[in-house]
Amino acid sequence: MSDDERSSIETQESQSPEFITLDEAAAMTNGTRVTFIPGMQAMYSEALKNICFVKNVPLIRVLHPPMGVDEATGKDRQAKLYELTSQTSLPTMLHDKERPRNVWIEQLALAERIGAASSPALIPDNFELRAEVFGLCAIVLAEDGLIWNMRILIDSPLGQKYGFSKEASSAAPGKIAEAITLIDRRLEAQEKRGLRYLVGDALTAADIYWATLSMSILPVPPEIMPRTRKNKGMLSYFEANSQIPVIAEALTKRIEDHQRFILTTHCETPAVLGGDSL
């Protein structure tokens, strides 16, 4: 087999990852397992995948059970997930025999602990820098942050889950723009010091989370996020978000440059989603 043929096969395999069932994942006692929806860049799953990619944590991909009732059995398809975690959101992260993690801050702490010794430290040892990292992460990931407000822009099942109302939806674009501006000002200050990262002089979790989750309001090309049958609607929604006037005004070239730099330099790009590509 030639080198070109071998490279082609490896590329095809990397774009078609294997997924195991939640029952299989729950029965395992070794390895790091994370739930995904094949073909869909569910933003928190994608962010956790990039965190683990940076930390050199090998992941076993698990099928996140869909909502609703199984027609064949008449049972809630997410009953097992709820039994394991007392919730149904994704991603769920399982590691060895330890308890499941479903909250981003616990998932980050776990990835930092089990990551390769040679991998970058995404949580600074310095407490002052650590406070900055977690503060920025909260602006993106926590309640009333960037993703929370992105989800309530429209009245949908997901929007309802996160408290959609006409009043909240009307306020959401302004809050998203405020978060973008905060990041932009920090990048500007860092740039003046000759630095490319959000905190200190090195990559941190704040860079990974922001760059990944900002795709929801600043779309990226297929070379970074491939198009699939499953994610095409979501990508159209992200494109529409970027065109909301107050958000569009806040999105600077500096924001775009940082996003592309982090994603292409440190993260899994093009993203490997599985599913059917377009």
Radius of gyration: 19 Å
User: Which sequence of strands runs across the widest sheet?
Assistant: 1-3-2-4
Mean pLDDT: 92
Low-confidence runs of at least 5 consecutive residues: 1-14
Task: Specify the CATH class of the largest domain.
Answer: Mainly Alpha
Question: What can you tell me about this protein's structure?
Answer:
- By secondary structure, this protein is mostly helical.
- It has two domains: 15-114, Glutaredoxin (3-Layer(aba) Sandwich); 127-266, Glutathione S-transferase Yfyf (Class Pi), Chain A, domain 2.
- The chain is 51% helix and 5% strand.
- It has 13 helices and four strands.
- It has helices spanning 3-15, 22-27, 43-54, 79-85, 104-114, 127-141, 146-151, 157-161, 166-192, 205-213, 232-242, 245-250, 253-266, and strands at residues 19-20, 32-36, 59-63, 93-95.
- It has a four-stranded mixed β-sheet.
- Strand 2 (32-36), helix 3 (43-54) and strand 3 (59-63) form a beta-alpha-beta unit.
- Helix 3 (43-54) runs antiparallel to helix 10.
- The two termini are 29 Å apart.
Task: Give a quick rundown of the structure.
With 278 residues, the protein is mainly α. It contains 13 helices and four strands. The protein has a four-stranded mixed β-sheet with strand order 1-3-2-4.
Keywords for this entry:
single chain; 278 residues; mainly alpha; Glutaredoxin; 2 domains; 13 helices; disordered N terminus
Secondary structure layout:
Blueprint: H1 3-15, E1 19-20, H2 22-27, E2 32-36, H3 43-54, E3 59-63, H4 79-85, E4 93-95, H5 104-114, H6 127-141, H7 146-151, H8 157-161, H9 166-192, H10 205-213, H11 232-242, H12 245-250, H13 253-266
Parallel strand pairs: 1-3, 2-3
Antiparallel strand pairs: 2-4
